[in-house]
Amino acid sequence: MDGTATPWFDEELAGCRLADKRLDRRLRQLVERMGGSIGASIPLACQDWANTKAAYRFFSNDRVGEADILAGHFQSTRGRFVAASGPILVLQDTTEFTYQRESTDAIGMTYRINSGKDKAVRFRMHTVCGLLMHSSLAVTLDGLPLGLSAIKFWTRSKFKGTAALKKKINPTRVPIEQNESFRWLENIRQSVALLGDPGRCVHIGDRESDIYELFCMAHDLGTHFLVRTCVDRLAGDGNHTIVAEMTDAPVKGFHEIEVRDDKGNRDIATVEIRYRRIRVLPPIGKQKRYPALDLTIIYAQEPNEPQNRPRIDWKLITDLPVQSAADAIDKLHWYAMRWKIEVFHKILKSGCRAEEARLRTAERLVRLIAVFCILAWRVFWMTMINRTTPGAKPQLAITAVEMKLLDRLIADKPAQFGELKPLSSYLTKIARLGGYLARAKDPPPGNIVMWRGLSRLTDITLGAAIAAELMGN
Question: The Transposase Tn5-like N-terminal domain covers which part of the protein (predicted)?
Answer without folding.
Answer: 7-64
